[in-house]
Write a structure and sequence with these properties.
GO terms for molecular function: hydrolase activity, acting on ester bonds. The protein has one domain (67-234): TIM Barrel. The chain is 41% helix and 14% strand. It contains nine helices and seven strands. Strands 1-2-3-4-5-6-7 form a seven-stranded parallel sheet, with helices on both faces.
Length: 238
Amino acid sequence: MNFCDPTTYREPNFLSRVLALQSPVGGSGWKLALGIHPKHATTYTEEDWGTFVALLQNPLVVGMSEVGFDFSVPSQRWPDQEALFLRLLGQGTQGRVLILHLRGGAHADTSYAVHKLSRRLLTRQCSPLQRIHLHCYNSDEVQVKAWAIAFPHCYFGFTGLARHFNASQVRGLRAVAADRVVLETDSPHLPPHPGMGDNSPDFLGDVGAIVADLRGLPLADLMRQTVRNGQALYGIFG
């Protein structure tokens, strides 16, 4: 479960309410990823920060998410996103998965810019063995190779948006090594089918069908592989 809006986890009894949702299967329940989304870089408070730091110490929290850059907002806000990103990295990422939200702006070159900037900062702050999950990946083959070289334990998450990929994005999806592909629903957002209402984790197989088709694989093979990949990335084995 991913929480990147401080207004959510600052609510009273946040953890106890999350724990109440746990439905253990084979002895394992939900794990959490916690962060401050880059769009909140100009609005989060010091109280929010203190709550985040305290919750980060909970053993249920296995990832820092979603963090990174979102250049869809006015450029005047980009420096605040960089400052927040560095502050988040300063909390330490060893032992946690770093789940990156990297979104370009209106100009095509900003898509490359967010990837290059985040890699430059990460190489200064993190071990090359850092486990990274590129959330909602939609860039090209060049960026796939650059991430794989800089961080060999980088995984690429694909959502229902893959249905709408252009040729360059499809080549990027196909360039990802089989053991580095993970599936995401990003629910309640990004429904895999046009005209759907809210998305949910129930549609993970629908996302898998889109990705399997683009990679030219049987759906069952892709689902088995991506389950193994997700377990390896997050260190969760049922």
